[in-house]
Design a protein that fits this description.
The chain is α/β, with parallel strands linked by helices. Helix content is 43%, strand content 13%. It has an eight-stranded mixed β-sheet with strand order 3-2-1-4-5-6-7-8, with helices on both faces. The longest helix is centred in the middle third of the chain and has 23 residues.
Length: 275
C-alpha cells in the first residue's frame, strides 16, 4: 500500500464513535479523507473540528442517509464524479440493537428491515458502485466493520416479518457483511484490491452501545488500532477474505463459509439493490 499521506480514504459513519476516532487518526497522518454521515450540520462541524485538531485541510464532507438506496447511489455517483482515486473504503456506518425503533421492527425508505438495509445492503451497494474506482486506484482495500455478534440468515424470512428481535436483526446484518466480504475477496483476486472484515472491539464506548444500556468493555483506541491495521499495515498487502476479532484472525459463524448460502445472499442482494 501507499503511505497514508498519499491515499484517499472514505469512511462511512464518520461523525461519531469509531468512525470519528478513526477519521481523526487518519487525518493526523495526512490522509485525504472523505467523511460520510447523514446529518448535514453535524457533518460540517465534524470536518471543521478534524481540521482544527489535526491541521489537515484535505478533509471533505459527504452527506447521505444509508436508509435510502437512492441516496447511497447518489453518494457513490458524487464520489466517482469528484475523485480520480480511492484507495480504501471503510464500511463503518451502522445502527445497533435498540435505536431507532426502541426494540420495534422498523423499515427503510425502500421497505426493507432497517438493520439489514443500513448495516448490510447500503454497504453492499456502495461497494459495488465504487469497485471500478477502487480497481483503478489499486492497490486498494475494502474494510467492512462487522461484529462478533452474528446470527445465521433465514432466507425464508430475511426481513424478519414473523419474529423480530433487535439483537437478532443486528446479528444477522453483521453476518451478512462477513459473507459479502468473503465473496468480494474471491471476486477481486488478481486485482490488487483486498477485502477484509473485523469485529473492532466488544462494547466500545459509542453512541450505539450507550443506547443499548451496555457497559463498555473495549477502549475506543483499541478499535481504532485494529481497524487502522486492516487499512494500512503493509504486512496485509496480500491478505484478503479474512475475518478478524480485533487484531486476531478468527473464524466467523459457519454460515459465512457456506458457498450456497453466500450465493443465495448475493443473488438476493443484487435483486434488492437493483444491481
Amino acid at each position: 500500500m501507499r503511505p497514508l499521506d498519499e491515499q484517499t480514504i472514505l469512511i462511512t459513519g464518520a461523525t461519531d464513535g469509531l468512525g470519528r476516532a478513526l477519521a481523526a487518526e487518519l487525518a493526523r497522518r495526512g490522509t485525504t479523507l472523505l467523511v460520510h454521515g447523514r446529518d448535514q450540520a453535524r457533518g460540517r462541524q465534524t470536518v471543521e473540528e478534524l481540521m482544527a485538531e489535526t491541521g489537515n485541510r484535505d478533509i471533505h464532507w459527504l452527506r447521505a442517509d444509508l436508509a435510502s438506496l437512492d441516496e447511497v447511489r447518489g453518494l457513490a455517483d458524487q464520489i466517482t464524479a469528484e475523485r480520480s482515486s480511492l484507495h480504501a473504503l471503510v464500511n463503518n456506518a451502522g445502527i445497533g440493537t435498540a435505536l431507532p425503533g426502541d426494540g420495534e421492527r422498523v423499515e427503510s425508505m425502500d421497505g426493507y428491515e432497517l438493520r439489514f438495509a443500513v448495516n448490510y445492503l447500503a454497504g453492499y451497494l456502495l461497494t459495488r458502485r465504487l469497485l471500478a474506482l477502487l480497481k483503478q486506484s489499486a492497490p486498494a482495500r475494502i474494510v467492512n466493520v462487522s461484529s462478533a455478534g452474528q446470527a445465521p440468515l433465514d432466507f425464508q424470512d430475511v426481513m424478519l416479518k414473523r419474529h423480530y428481535e433487535g439483537m437478532h436483526a443486528y446479528a444477522r446484518s453483521k453476518l451478512a457483511q462477513v459473507m459479502f466480504t468473503f465473496d468480494l475477496a474471491d471476486e477481486l483476486k488478481g486485482t490488487a484490491v483486498t477485502a477484509n472484515c473485523l469485529h473492532p472491539g466488544t462494547y466500545m464506548p459509542t453512541k450505539m452501545v450507550r443506547a443499548a444500556g451496555v457497559t463498555p468493555v473495549t477502549a475506543l483506541e483499541d478499535g481504532v488500532g485494529a481497524t487502522l491495521r486492516l487499512i494500512a499495515d503493509p504486512e496485509l498487502d496480500a491478505v484478503s477474505g479474512r475475518y478478524f476479532n480485533g487484531r486476531q484472525e478468527t473464524e466467523p459463524h459457519p454460515q459465512a463459509r457456506d458457498p450456497e448460502a453466500r450465493q443465495r445472499l448475493r443473488e438476493l442482494s443484487d435483486r434488492l439493490v437493483g444491481v
